[in-house]
Amino acid sequence: MLKRFSTDTLNWILIIGGILLIFEIVFFFGGTIVPAIFAALVVYFGWRKFYHLWGKIAFWIGAVILVLSILNLMAVRFLLVALIVLFIINFSKTKKEPTLLAPDSSTNRTGNEETVNRIEPLFTHRLFGDQDTSEMAYKWRDINIHGGFGDRLVDLSNTVLPNDTAVISIRHMIGNIQIYVPYEVEVSIHHSSVFGRAHVFGETDRKLMNQSLIYQTAHYDTKLPRVKIITSIFSGDIEVVRI
What is the rounded CA–CA span in Å between residue 240 and residue 221? Predict the structure, then answer.
């Protein structure tokens, strides 16, 4: 349904939702945002200990409180109303302008069109839970993901990097990021964090408070293979070690 509307329309809806969220934070002291954050933390720790009975109870109680807290936000209620209005507008347009069903002309395409292959990524975008690369050998594919809660582990010793620049881009909320790099691989690291620590190739732990740091091995610009690591995290540690 949303594909029928322009990007500008959707952007305006998101902007108004963001303004309402800021309004609620400023004039209503956060409204239900604080309970939502607390519930999210309960869900996270309940998920981590889900194999215990108390973990299951904490997870589901936190999930219910989280959903109710989110639904009570003015911004979320506005988005729900906006989606209903868009659905009604879309339905009325389809009644006035029925969708034209045309025969598939794919068999008549010329041979000048480029063939592309869809490749499954190593990681998927996941809000909760840990993710790590396979313990068995796997084919390398650049990583570009964002996540919510949990740890991320990338082990480059079980793959063959391309004779070029491999890219690892991870944007995360809460959790730790670990990256294992073989000794013969050159590395560039650009990491930003609101709260957390950084452990990079034996460097002394650096406590980060809304800071960014950049590390680069001595021969990164001249030797291959090499990997470019770009990470950002709200709260958590990053560890990059040789293996």
Answer: 19
Residue 3, CB-side half-sphere exposure with 13 Å CA sphere = 0
186 with 166: CB under 8 angstroms?
no
> Using CA atoms, how far apart are residues 146 and 171, in angstroms rounded to an integer?
4
C-alpha to C-alpha distance for 140 and 131, rounded to whole angstroms: 16
CB neighbours of 59 closer than 8 A, spacing ≥ 6? 42, 43, 46, 47, 50
Residue type, 142: D
Query: Distance between CA 72 and CA 63 in Å, rounded?
Result: 14
Encoding tokens for residue 117? 């292959």
Q: What is the 3-state secondary structure (H, E, C) of the chain?
A: CHHHCCHHHHHHHHHHHHHHHHHHHHHCCCCCHHHHHHHHHHHHHHHHCCCCHHHHHHHHHHHHHHHHHHHCCHHHHHHHHHHHHHHHHHHHHHHHCCCCCCCCCHHHCCCCCCCCCCCCCCCCCECCCCEECCCCCCCCCCEEEEECECCEEEEHHHCCCCCCEEEEEEEEEECCEEEEECCCCEEEEEEEEEEEEEEECCCCCEEEEEEEEEEECCCCCCCCCEEEEEEEEEECCEEEEEC
The separation between CA 234 and the C-alpha centre of its own chain, rounded to angstroms, equals: 12
Distance CA 171, CA 60 (A): 26
What digits encode the pLDDT tens for the residues 153-195? 999 988 888 888 999 999 988 888 999 999 999 999 999 988 8
Condensed to tens digits (0 to 9), the pLDDT of residues 45-60 reads: 888 888 888 888 988 9
Whether 159 contacts 135, CB under 8 Å? no
Q: Is the pTM of this model over 0.70?
A: no
